[in-house]
Design brief:
Layout lengths: L1 H15 L8 H19 L7 H24 L3 H25 L7 H20 L6 H25 L3 H35 L25 E5 L3 E5 L9 E2 L22 H8 L8
Amino acid sequence: STLVSNRLTREMSEHEHPVKKAAAGPLGLIAFGMTTTLLNLKNLGLFKLSSMVYGMGVFYGGLVQLIVGILEFKEGNTFGWVAFSSYGCFWLSLCFTWILSNVGLAPADSTGMMFYLIMWGTFTLFLWFCTFRSNLCTFIVFGSLVVLFYFLALADLLKAAGTATGGEWVERIAGLVGVVCGLTALYTGLAEVLNENLGRVVMPLGKPFRSGPVFRAAAAPSAAVEVGFIPEYVSTRSSPTSTSFQASETVPLRRNEATAAIPTSTSLPAPTTAALTAAPALSAQ
């Protein structure tokens, strides 16, 4: 039919002339990293909480990450959608809480903030589990973020119990962990931008904390299979019988940039199968 013919023509055109899309993930990582570092410099006691932190938190830490999350949703990246959207809303809610507390409309007490931070720490803990097969930098970002949330919750617990001095010391330790977290996220985002721009790995992101198959699927020899979360690495399969996937040190690629060679199947229309089979396989450098 005309509808099927138009669909096949469009699919063949997309594979013959792929349209490169900009990756949203690096922007989200940079926004998260810069805002987190700035806030935790405050936790270290280098300066007081001011409108500068509010502005950074609302616009760069909040709105930008929320937009990145929506873009990741359009790309089908569930992890990126959940992570960036959630942390964008975290920054918006945190700044809104501070503002309401400062103007006296709804003061935030230490006990309430403790439970608030525990909830976010628990949420981040489960996201951290998802990074075990991602690159090392992403693993460190989420792992240190878990520690940061729980240390800040402990600081508020001590303040609520009347131990203000102990709470301040724990907050200083949390600030140090937060700076490590923020700078690692900033490095990861900048590395993705620089590596893609130069076409080679200049700033390595490290091998996954755990290796092994992320999923099993039929693939042709040397077919490129995407694994990882943020950033999305491309792994290669060395032989048709191999069952292990190892993250390569090639430039991180997005889903729409990595085209896997798919074996011919009778369930696919002939033009689509030919176009996919003809796509060049990606190999690890």
